[in-house]
Amino acid sequence: MLVGLTRRGDAGILKIQNPPHNILSGVVLREFRERLVELKNDAAVKVVVIAGQGIFSAGADVKEIYQLSQLGSTEKILPFLQEANDVVDLVENLGKPTIAAIDGICWGGGNELAMACSYRVAAKNAIFCQPEIGLGLIPGMGGTQRLPQLVGCEEAVRLMITGEKINAAKAQTLGLIDESVPDLNVALVDLLDHRREILEKTRPVRSGNPNLSEVAAFAVKSQFPQAADAILSAVSAGYSDSLAKGHELEQKLFAARVLTQEAQEAIARFLKIQPPQQKASQTEKNGDDAETLKEIRQMIREFAAEKIEPKIAQMEKERRILPELIKEMAELGFYGIPFSEKYGGLGLGLPGYCIVAEELARVHGSTAVMVGAHVSLACKAVYMFGTEEQKQKYLVSGIKGEKIGCYATTEPSVGSDLANIKTSAKKVDGGWFINGTKQFISNGAISDFAIVLAQTDPMGGNRTQAMFIVDIKSKGFHITKETEEKIGLHASCTSAFAMDDCFVPDVNLLGQVGQGFKVAMHVFNQSRISLGAGCVGAVKAAIEETIKYVKDRQIGGEPLWTKQLTQEKLGELEAIRYLIETLVYETARLYESGSKIQKEAAIVKYVSSEFLDKAINLALQVHGGSGYIEDYKIARLYRDSRVNRIFEGTSEVQLLLIAKELLKESL
Ligand SMILES: Cc1cc2nc3c(=O)[nH]c(=O)nc-3n(C[C@H](O)[C@H](O)[C@H](O)COP(=O)(O)OP(=O)(O)OC[C@H]3O[C@@H](n4cnc5c(N)ncnc54)[C@H](O)[C@@H]3O)c2cc1C
Predict the structure, then answer these.
(1) Cis (ω within 30 of 0) for the bond into 20?
(2) Distance from Cα 213 to the centre of ligand 1, integer Å
(3) Which of 29, 201, 534, 651 gives a 20 to 30 Å CA spacing to 175?
(4) Distances in Å between the alpha carbon of 636 and those of 156, 249, 308, 605, 616?
(5) How far, in Å, from the CA of 644 to the mean position of ligand 1?
(6) Closest of 587, 577, 591, 502 to residue 538, by C-alpha
(7) Which residues are catalytic?
């Protein structure tokens, strides 16, 4: 018997006895339910005690969660979750007082079961925790709804996002349990015999307006930021909508998390197994994708040769990307390559987009930057953090090229140190007033919408920033400079704009207040990898140009390529090409698999831009004086490449990021 049932007077005592950890497997929960129904229907039973043999319970069965992850769809997972939640709901709605008598471990599903009881008494040695985040998951048996009721919204979110273990004394201070006692058995007898009336108390319901922006900072730091976001969403739904809606959303989000590769990998690591099915299907998918990616590469290469190359001189001179080219790229689907089919994309993720970035940069840096700012920054921000309504409005039209976007974090006084931006967002009825100036914004003057980072509290640093989608036609929005005169990227428009009491409606808040910095960092994490792909394209172009040159150029009656010092440079160029190409595409695949890649993205950005710099210098050197003359493509490649070490975070900033992550891992 996995759930024991004894009686003491008019009390029914249920004991979970599934040693060593009293795991709440499906079988245990089914048996638990049967005993519970028996006690519910027994009129002689006036109070129910729930306890565990030795310890209370370490929660759900991770092996069973792993099996759920292999079902492949949320529809298939939800009935199992519903079954588990029915048991917990039955405890809450038993129609009689219920006491959780907690000894030792009370984690995850165990804690969720205890929280559904009307009274919680714990021995001093009890330890409480919602550890799901460590597996990239969220609580799935009502934790996101019941924990906020007991300990308040902010504390609940903090506990779930950090997975912190707390002792009985702290649990009592926070309100998670009603009392902590030296001897659980003595306390139970006392409760049942002398203090019955306190069991009739009603459940505390916390209300008010939770300040989720405070706790959102924990989500940024989480090992699994998307799981942390799911926790925030489920808690918010319970507060702003209803508990029933909150429960429903929690189950959906739990099911969705279980299906992510990062959660499956974390679960497999915990169980010390390989995730075989995922691996197999991934291999098949990779095979399919590899074919599609090859075709995409060919298509972009042909387009670049036929449509972009002949217009480069004109575009460089006119300081713009021709509008018909912007339109044609949209018609060919370039802008939708990384995004899901649901929004009109091709679903090829970051590896797909890297090919676009590489092939465009191989031919024309300015076109690559125009597409990068629109797709990899503006549209991607909406894709990653937007509401469904925002995606329908900005992403779908962005993919079709009906709207062009830009991404604005840099200001005249702040570029690297984004925590100190000055652009302010002030809450007003129905939206926000934005005031401030942004500069060096790629696509600024040709955009329809801008993703703008702003500060909601001048004292709050990066914890109170918010990201907004600003329609360029909004009142108070002014382009103050169409484009800067630059060393290179002559056809890319690099603008400045000012916002004076520029009204942005609430529906255009991207993510939550307090998450702005996090949105910016997550968008940069993936875009830095595609920037690396642009560097690969530029290195390939430099190699092609150099090979052409050394075949033609004669030195002392022999082609230049015959000289050993030339061959040394060619060897170095090819080694750089191989190094950064492998690094970029490997990291893009890592990103797509759901792995955390903040450090790796910074490494890609640093290594690829620094090596590009070296490669272009070498290639230009091989060209001799001709390399300095505009008639040769290497001169433009040289001018266009330099900025890669600066934008989207300078090389110095990347090194600081890499060191920070390294120290986090090592100290
Ligand atoms: C062509 C072009 C296009 C751009 N497009 C966009 C765009 O679309 N959107 C956008 O928001 N921005 C854009 N930018 C701006 C770009 O991202 C910034 O220029 C860049 O982040 C650096 O900021 P900064 O110019 O303010 O330099 P600063 O931050 O002032 O840095 C100056 C120097 O100090 C170094 N430094 C900074 N912090 C530290 C530190 N802690 N320790 C040591 N050294 C440090 C930097 O590495 C740099 O060498 C673009 C810039 C250019 C040139």
Answers:
(1) yes
(2) 27
(3) 29
(4) 56, 53, 15, 21, 10
(5) 11
(6) 577
(7) 648
> Which of 523, 613, 647, 651 most suits a substitution to test ligand 1, by most atoms within 8 Å of the C-beta?
647
What tens digit of pLDDT does each residue of 307-323 get? 999 999 999 999 999 99
Helices (H), 163-275: 168-174, 184-194, 212-221, 225-240, 243-258, 261-271
Which residue has tokens 């729930």?
Answer: 50
Across 85-89, 282-286, 339-343, the highest mean pLDDT is recorded for: 85-89
Task: Report yes or no: 408 and 418 within 8 Å, Cβ to Cβ.
Answer: no
- Domains for the chain: give ranges and CATH numbers: 3-271 (3.90.226.10), 276-403 (1.10.540.10), 407-514 (2.40.110.10), 517-666 (1.20.140.10)
C-alpha dihedral sign at 661, 662, 666, 667 = negative
pLDDT of residue 265: 86
Closest protein CA for atom 45 of ligand 1:
652
- 535, amino acid identity: C
Distance 376 CA to ligand 1 centre (A): 18
Smallest CA-to-CA distance from 599 within 645, 654, 649 is with 654
CA distance 339 to 332: 14
Q: For the chain, what percent of residues have pLDDT higher than 90? A: 81
Q: Position of tokens 């759930």? A: 3
Q: Whose CA is nearest to atom 32 of ligand 1?
A: 416
| Cα 383 to Cα 380: distance, rounded to the nearest angstrom | 5
Q: Which atom of ligand 1 is nearest to the CA of 411?
A: 26
Alpha helices by DSSP H, listed for 336-405, are 349-363, 365-371, 380-385, 388-390, 396-400
How far is residue 428 from each of residues 22, 386, 474, 505, measured CA to CA in Å? 52, 21, 16, 9
- Cβ 66 vs Cβ 267: under 8 Å: yes
| Lowest-confidence segment of 117-131, 584-598, 623-637 by average pLDDT | 584-598
3-state secondary structure of 166: strand
Residue type, 244: A
